[in-house]
Design brief:
mainly alpha
Length: 461
């Protein structure tokens, strides 16, 4: 049973229990109001379930429609005047899940932007290397010694050929997994289509047989849809790996090979001209400097675009998601205060999950800022190839500050989750409580050590 399913069990039980306590001896208007709230809760529960597949990986059009639906649900959930305490707890817990869904949609967009940022940083790294190599080449041409220069260029060409061969191996190594994942997705899509068709037929059978006789067919249809969803998830994961890992890696290797091939061409031209007049070498040096200047312009422009996206679009998205996840935690805490019995630990666990997701989001942002800062450090360390290091000094300072701030926010979120866990009691919370405690402790330990390659555990168990 998923986290949302567990939460919905509480949502169903709490308002019904509250309604039972007040159904006897109350005025008709109060009972009618509670019935109205109960109907709203049922509607929200249904619409929230329906929004979840869209929230997992929305297009812009789907996201806009789903956000509007979810915000409408929040408005409905806020209307709890006259509701029983159990109904208010249920509304708060559902609102927590709505906020998490809104955050999930925002973070899906963040993931795509961050993936694009990583790809562009990789390409920029290759360009910075190329600029540094061309800078060294130009310096050699400007201080030409024919005999020594022949030797130097030969060594440079040998190194470039080795790099070119390495890039060729990288491209060849990417071809096999790309083909394997593509074939697996094609086969799985065929299975998905088959399962969807069977599920649709069963659903039509259930509709024709009626609620009682068709219940079994309905359950089978739901099960087939879930199986198809699981396979679709695998397909989506492979598509993400193809689109954002394997194919970009191959494209990056190809781009670097192109730069390296261009460098080899420049070396060959220099070798052919080295026996000519010194003016020839002077012309070559000047042309190389012009190429470096062009690369510098591209690098500076790319850095500006990357930085603008980080400080504007990404920063806004992270802030929006953080607000949604903070609201989710607050709503879950409110549900815990209003709830009774086993609904209390369940609500607190939902608060923990929201805090964990918030911590993981800030952790990812911190790592992204660290990677962005490392690229800026490479620009500063490039020497005279890219001009004065001071041109990115402000961006370096901002990146370091943003990295530190994101780490602090992650630590605060994990600490909040740890505090919530200390308040969780109840037999039903036992198994998942220990797992969550381990997740929180692992996240805090990894964050404190800032271990390269480490990442917090997925809280959504």
């Amino acid at each position: 049973m998923s986290n949302l399913d567990r939460a919905l069990v509480i949502v169903i039980c709490c308002p019904l229990a509250g309604g039972a306590l007040f159904s006897s001896g109350c005025e008709d208007s109060a009972a009618a109001r509670r019935a109205e709230v109960q109907a709203n809760l049922a509607t929200v529960r249904h619409d929230l379930r329906a929004s979840m597949p869209i929230a997992a990986d929305p297009t812009q059009q789907e996201r806009t429609a789903a956000e509007a639906t979810l915000k409408t649900l929040l408005t409905m959930l806020a209307d709890t005047d006259g509701a029983a305490p159990g109904q208010q707890a249920a509304a708060s817990l559902l609102a927590s899940n709505v906020h998490r869904q809104l955050a999930a949609m925002t973070l899906a967009g963040v993931g795509r932007l961050e993936t694009e940022q990583r790809r562009r940083r990789d390409v920029l790294g290759g360009m910075i290397d190329a600029a540094a190599e061309l800078h060294a080449l130009a310096g050699s041409l400007e201080t030409i010694d024919t005999q020594a220069q022949h030797q130097h260029l030969a060594a440079n060409r040998q190194n470039a050929q080795a790099r070119l061969a390495s890039y060729g191996e990288e491209m060849a190594a990417a071809d096999a997994p790309i083909a394997a994942l593509t074939n697996a997705n094609r086969d799985d899509q065929t299975e998905i289509d088959k399962l969807r068709a069977q599920a649709n037929q069963l659903m039509r059978d259930a509709s024709e047989q009626g609620p009682a006789a068709g219940y079994g067919a309905y359950e089978q249809s739901v099960q087939l849809d879930r199986e198809a969803d699981h396979i679709q998830y695998d397909v989506s994961q492979r598509e993400l790996e193809l689109e954002f890992t394997l194919q970009p890696a191959r494209a990056l290797a190809q781009t670097r090979a192109g730069y390296t091939q261009a460098l080899i061409g420049a070396i060959d031209e220099s070798s052919a001209a080295i026996d000519g007049l010194l003016q020839t070498f002077s012309d070559e040096a000047r042309a190389t400097r012009e190429t470096i200047a062009q690369l510098r312009d591209v690098i500076v422009a790319e850095l500006g675009e990357l930085n603008q996206t980080r400080t504007n679009e990404l920063a806004d998205a992270y802030e929006q998601a953080a607000k949604q996840l903070s609201a989710a935690a607050n709503k879950a805490e409110k549900a815990a205060r209003l709830g009774q019995g086993e609904s209390v630990p369940a609500a607190r666990i939902e608060a923990v999950r929201a805090d964990l997701e918030l911590g993981h989001m800030h952790w990812s942002a911190a790592q992204a800022w660290q990677d962005h800062g490392a690229l800026l450090d490479r620009v500063q360390a490039s020497g005279g190839a890219l001009g004065s290091a001071s041109m990115v000094s402000a961006q370096v300072t901002a990146a370091r500050t943003a990295h530190a701030d994101a780490r602090d926010h992650a630590k605060n979120a994990y600490t909040s989750a740890q505090g919530q866990l200390s308040q969780v009691t109840g037999r039903s919370a036992g198994p998942q409580l220990e797992a969550l405690k381990q997740d929180v402790q692992t996240a805090i330990s990894a964050l404190s050590g800032d271990a390269p390659g480490s990442s917090p555990a997925n809280p959504d168990k």
